[in-house]
């Protein structure tokens, strides 16, 4: 476990998120170094009170956690995120919050690798349906990358099979068909959960190429 276990208290969640982000920084910096690619760590904006950043106000209306490529910032509301995660008690299942953080970090990895900018450039002048289709592939890849990281720390961060099963089951409720926002940019609950588990099951980045996946797997 990280040096600070999470709880519903903002200070505990803050310490937990920073401790896990330290792990993410080391893990992904190593991978980029192996590829001889430039890597900069993300900005951490773990907040108790809302504010405004380059990507707008936070917390966002539809997200208690998001990544802003403009300043490489990961924005997570220390108490907001608990409500957005179905009121899962952090002390009972910290893996929910570990995976959520790893997802946002996955977007940072995509940004540093050039994936984030490339997909948007490709469809920025296309139809809403085309933009949403690329957005789903982007979000589901971040899910898969989160699964890969979580598998890599399953021993050191106490990711038991039971906690992982609960985390995956919870992500079924976070899909476009479940969240009630009427958007089609993250993928169905089934696919949102499936790609998270796919990354965890295989534990390899190469298995996260959602850009060549069948349309039905990224719907």
Secondary structure category: mainly alpha
Taken as a percent bin, the fraction of beta residues is 5-15%
Low-confidence region ranges: none
Would you tell me the overall average pLDDT?
94
Query: Which percent range fits the helix content?
Result: 40-55%
DSSP strand tally: 5
Task: Give the termini distance in whole angstroms.
Answer: 35 Å
- Rg computed from alpha carbons, rounded to a whole number of angstroms: 16 Å
- Tally of individual helices: 7
Largest sheet: 3 strands, mixed
Shape: globular
- Tell me the series of helices and strands, N- to C-terminal: HEEEEEHHHHHH
Question: Strand order within the widest sheet?
Answer: 1-5-4
Can you describe this structure?
By secondary structure, this protein is mainly alpha-helical. The protein is built from 7 helices and 5 strands. The chain has helices at residues 10-34, 80-84, 95-113, 115-123, 128-152, 161-171, 189-202, and strands spanning 43-47, 51-53, 56-58, 65-68, 73-77. Strands 1-5-4 form a 3-stranded mixed sheet. Strand 4 (65-68) and strand 5 (73-77) form a beta hairpin. Helix 1 packs parallel to helix 3, helix 3 (95-113) packs across helix 5 (128-152) and helix 6 (161-171) runs antiparallel to helix 7 (189-202). The longest helix has 25 residues, at 10-34. It is globular, with a radius of gyration of 16 Å. The mean pLDDT is 94.
Short structural summary:
49% of the residues lie in helices and 9% in strands. It is mostly helical and 219 residues long.
